[in-house]
From TrEMBL:
Ranges of residues in domain BPL/LPL catalytic: 27-107
Signal peptide: none
Name of the featured protein: Lipoate-protein ligase LplJ
Keyword Ligase (UniProt): yes
UniProt keyword list: Ligase
Biological classification of the source: Eukaryota, Viridiplantae, Streptophyta, Embryophyta, Tracheophyta
Record flagged with keyword ATP-binding: no
Organism from which the protein derives: Panicum miliaceum (Proso millet)
GO molecular function: ligase activity
Amino acid sequence: MSVIGSAARRGTTRLLIWLVTMSGAPILQQLHLEEWLLHRTKDNWCVINDDTVAPPLSWGISSVSELVEIEPVLQDRVPVVRRFSGGGTIIVDQGMMFVTFICNKSAIEGLQPFPRDIMSWSGQLYRNVFDRFGEFHLRDC
């Protein structure tokens, strides 16, 4: 794991974001780190974990029975991890990359702390990164 400080100028304010990079870390380890950062620091963070280890199924703050078919999960002994943050249910498989932003509410000017607003902002950010490889869209499935 490496931690890098990065500064970016936005108008007259200066946003400092700390970058944590991991490779092959289990998603549960990443989630523990993110929760620790959220509750124990006031800094802005970007956590990147590429080639994560499979195979847990992960779900957000909703009830597990709302988002996970319990019988097949128990039958197949699929590890299930609850995230402390919101978001839908995901199945972690080999080679996935996770990018998490943990920021103060005022870190991005004009960004409202609601799922649709954050998804729109992150979609624009990723579009700038991935457009050279073809058309990119971030979609809620």
